[in-house]
Amino acid sequence: EVQLLESGGGLARPGGSLRLSCEASGFTFPNHGMSWVRQAPGKGLEWVSGITNSGGSTYYADSVKGRFTISRDNSGSTLFLQMNSLRVEDTAIYYCAKEEYQPGGFDYWGQGTLVTVSS
Amino acid sequence: SYVLTQPPSVSVAPGQTATITCGGNNIGSKSVHWSQQRPGQAPVLVIFYDSQRPPGTPDRFSASNSGHTAILTIDRVEAGDEADYYCQLWDTGSAQYVFGTGTKVTVL
What we know:
Chain A has 119 residues and is an all-beta fold. Chain A contains no helices and eleven strands. Chain B has no helices and nine strands.
């Protein structure tokens, strides 16, 4: 059974940092691209960042470019999102998603981790 | 950046057909996926590559993509279909994934 378990969310101050993790199981992690997608309270889905299966290429939404860094540990089947210079508007549930149908068909999603940026 | 536009809401009676549009410039040249998000839950993929159903998606769900509009159709709508629906694609030009604005389907 495919499982994606996010962690690392919580409360951060504006300008602060958080590191999200997504532990994957039930599939061959190194074979799949992965992404982070967020959803602000009461709002729609917003793609944040993606990474290819090898980690050789990374992609970012304009809203987070230069502040967030995506990475992965294929030996540990874990996806990461380092979030720096956090802003109030980064407040959202952050989901990790497994890409099955390239490009962009995410067939499994985690349950999400809540990030709140507030002073 | 590439923009995908969906109607904010669609209302449909049980047993009828719901049609959800997703508009984008020359979207017919791109591969479109559709996800369903029930309240309080993570999204679930219901259509990939314009019109393919992943395992578990009922055949009441169908989709097409041509010109400037992709369409998700739900036949014989059930109460359990009440959810938000999002189209999504990869925009090669910007090297970014893009989600549509989302459509809330209400079953009357």
